Amino acid sequence: MASGRLDLDGNPIKPMTICMIGAGGFIGSHLCEKLMAETPHKVLAVDVYNDKIKHLLEPSSLPWADRIQFHRLNIKNDSRLEGLIRMSDLTVNLAAICTPADYNTRPLDTIYSNFIDALPVVSVSCCYLFVQFS
């Protein structure tokens, strides 16, 4: 875990809680691995599957065991998502809702529109995400 990281103004970066929607997918699972290995941040991992991050969740002896929690939710119809987002300092939306009916009737940004103004949200859809923590 990295320590002594500074922001662009030279101030120490404090650990934060990140709600990662879609943490069990390709990008989300790799981002979870990177966050656990290289930062002190806590992740509330949200997805319907955890196969790709199971290795981060099972061994309780790993140094990050107390910094990652998996929440099995279907974000389209589970009211618990709002509580997880409210508990977080940052929400990263990597959800893949892939049916045309979903896009036409309920865009991803409306899923949590009631409280989106109060929270920083990063939404990634059908694009490349490059993250470097060093």
From TrEMBL:
SUPFAM superfamilies: NAD(P)-binding Rossmann-fold domains. Gene3D superfamilies: NAD(P)-binding Rossmann-like Domain (3.40.50.720). Coiled coil: none annotated. It comes from the Eukaryota. InterPro entries: Epimerase_deHydtase, Lipid_A_modif_metabolic_enz, NAD(P)-bd_dom_sf. Residues 18-125 form the NAD-dependent epimerase/dehydratase domain. PANTHER family: BIFUNCTIONAL POLYMYXIN RESISTANCE PROTEIN ARNA (PTHR43245), UDP-D-APIOSE_UDP-D-XYLOSE SYNTHASE 2 (PTHR43245:SF13). This is NAD-dependent epimerase/dehydratase domain-containing protein.
